[in-house]
Amino acid sequence: MKQMLLLITTLLSLTTFSQNMVASDSGNVTVHKDARLDLLVTKQAEINEVTSRDARKTGKGFRLMIISTNSRDEAISAKTKVYTHFPELKPYLWHQSPYYKLKAGNFKDRKEAEAYQKKLNTYFPKGVFIMNDIIELKIDDIRD
């Protein structure tokens, strides 16, 4: 019985490895594609290069230190408040054990940072401080 089962299994496995050899024209495959696809791919590659290159530009500037706390919920609440009242500022939240720190803005000039500091002090009465930092530069800032 075992020998019969082994024989059947062997024969079935040999048939699964075999292939039907059908004669084709010349073995070549012809692909028909729209030439505009190449243009789209090239254009997207250019856009990706420009946006990623510009996103990597950094320089010296100022940010506003809004909060430094042990409470994650308090830090997230402050970040939400910045998003709500100052959508033009980009908040940066990170954990530097044991504190959660929230900074906001990318200011090239200290005077611009001071103007936002006064506005933010009304929402954060514990104080907002201006700090030197490496900031993300906008395309306009790079050309100046």
Describe the structure.
This protein has 144 residues and is α+β, with helices and mostly antiparallel strands. It has a domain at 58-143: Alpha-Beta Plaits (2-Layer Sandwich), CATH 3.30.70. 47% of the residues lie in helices and 24% in strands. It contains 5 helices and 4 strands; from the N terminus they run H-H-E-H-E-E-H-E-H. It has helices spanning 2-17, 36-55, 72-85, 110-121, 139-143, and strands at residues 58-69, 91-96, 99-107, 129-136. The longest helix is centred in the N-terminal third of the chain and has 20 residues, at 36-55. Residues 1-23 form the signal peptide. Pfam families: SPOR (PF05036). Residues 59-121 form the SPOR domain. This is SPOR domain-containing protein.
Quick overview of this protein structure:
The chain has 144 residues and is α+β, with helices and mostly antiparallel strands.
